[in-house]
Design goal:
- By secondary structure, the protein is mainly alpha-helical.
- 75% of the residues lie in helices and 0% in strands.
- The protein is built from 26 helices and no strands.
- The chain is flat, with a radius of gyration of 27 Å.
């Protein structure tokens, strides 16, 4: 019988010496004997990822599926049949080919959780977070697992992250209410408690927790802000104040009182400097303030369209917003480099600021996200159009057309940009063909009909 602890020490030593292949082999031996061994699974996954990093390569998702089709099918089948024990080895076989597969790693983590290998499940889910920091299933699962292992602070952290990403989520407020109740217990209370209702002896606390978890009516917002501020002032040193300040900030935001919301979120951020979600909130509020100011000037210009000072103010605020967006999204991408949604947003901001090469680089990252592939290709094409590299623009727009399901607006936009690019590239016949595809579905789209009439004269 192998001594798994000695084997684990050898695996750790191999990892520390960057002998990743040997570390992987040893860790796999351990989990074959003890599927729930948390340290072995942790070493295994780190070694697989570090091996890819050291080689400067990242496995292609398609090639991983092609070479690992059988284990991938097994994972899918065993997941469907709800056989978590069978999922574990099949998932590991596939992950050995692609340790960046979020779906397979999530399926593995879910299976570990079902088998009550909580620590191993936590390790796996926490390894998924850097790959997709805004994935709600991962964050909720971590919150629930930390409740199961009686770590209220960590559970609260993950459910608060869920709320920051999706304030309308229904599960997170209930979980946070239970965690808040459980945190009032003395040592040993977690193990003795049966439910949050059993735990809340103080009816005043119960009422407060219930109110915190409910949506406040518009007419009740001022009273709720006053109530929360009273709680903050009564006990200025309470760690609960961060939660109260976040809530006050959200309420001010609903009132469109962005200055007050900004001040409140900044106060919360000073109390908890490590909370990245608060920094994002501050940035989002600043963008809302720009939009509010732009809308106000545009409304004034409608009444006085020749007002030059207003036009200058509009141009200045637009420039300031573009500059802020670039700085803000660059900061977010530095914190979450694997978040393709943020990379796409940064690309859009860079494109708007005419920083075309930087924009292309970001869109070439976000194009790997299936949800943003088409839009990323369209933006890359637009960037090449702006740089007057029309053959490259045509290539990107063609890829976008071939990419799959497109909305009617996307289809028209791509054909229009193809037409413009072909025109600029001295290919009027192909440009005419692209414009005609548009009027087959929308004869009034932009100046397409006018372009067709002009091109028909030139190609005769």
């Amino acid at each position: 019988m192998l001594d798994t602890e000695k084997l684990c020490s050898r695996a750790q030593e191999a990892f520390d010496k960057r002998n990743y292949d040997y570390a992987v082999d040893l860790a796999r031996q351990i989990i074959e004997l003890e599927p729930g061994h948390p340290k072995a699974r942790h070493i295994l996954r780190l070694a697989q990822v570090k091996k890819c990093e050291s080689q400067g390569t990242r496995p292609s998702a398609i090639s991983a599926i092609i070479t690992g089709l059988l284990p991938f099918i097994k994972v899918f089948v065993y997941k469907t049949l709800n056989k978590p024990v069978k999922v574990l080895p099949a998932a590991e076989d596939f992950i050995s080919r692609n340790p960046y597969s979020i779906w397979v790693r999530t399926t593995l983590a879910d299976a570990l959780s079902k088998l009550n290998y909580s620590e191993s499940a936590i390790n796996e889910f926490e390894g998924i977070v850097p790959l997709d920091p805004r994935r709600l299933h991962t964050l909720k699962s971590l919150g629930k697992l930390y409740i199961a292992v009686k770590d209220g602070k960590k559970a609260q952290q993950y459910f608060q992250a869920v709320m920051s990403i999706n304030p309308s989520d229904l599960d997170a407020p209930r979980a946070l209410k239970d965690i808040a109740a459980l945190s009032t217990l003395k040592d040993g209370g977690w193990s003795e408690a049966r439910s949050s209702r059993d735990l809340i002896k103080d009816k005043g606390v119960a009422v407060q927790l219930e109110r915190d978890s409910q949506m406040v009516k518009e007419s009740d917002i001022p009273d709720e802000i006053k109530r929360l501020n009273n709680l903050i002032n009564q006990n200025p040193d309470s760690p609960e104040n961060i939660k109260h300040l976040k809530r006050v900030g959200e309420l001010y935001q609903r009132q469109a009182n962005y200055e007050a919301a900004m001040e409140t979120y900044q106060k919360a951020a000073r109390l908890n400097p490590s909370d990245g979600a608060l920094k994002i909130k501050v940035g989002d509020i600043r963008l809302l303030m720009f939009d509010r100011d732009l809308k106000a000037i545009q409304q004034k210009l409608q009444a006085d369209p020749n007002n030059q000072p207003l036009k200058q103010s509009l141009q200045k605020i637009r420039q300031e917003k573009r500059q802020f967006q670039v700085e803000e999204y660059r900061r977010r991408v530095q914190l979450h480099p694997t978040d393709m949604a943020l990379r796409f947003q940064l690309g859009v901001a860079l494109y708007a600021g005419n920083l075309l090469d930087d924009a292309i680089a970001e869109f070439q990252n976000s194009v790997r996200d299936p949800k943003r592939k088409t839009d990323s290709l369209i933006y890359i094409g637009r960037c090449f159009m702006a740089k007057k590299i029309y053959d490259m623009a045509i290539s990107q727009f063609t890829k976008a057309l071939e990419g799959g399901m497109l909305s009617a607006e996307q289809t028209k936009d791509i054909h229009y940009n193809l037409g413009v690019s072909y025109e600029a590239n001295k290919n009027p016949e192909q440009a005419l063909a692209e414009y005609k595809k548009i009027i087959e579905i929308d004869i009034n789209y932009k100046d397409t009909m006018k372009k067709i009439e002009q091109l028909q004269q030139s190609v005769k």
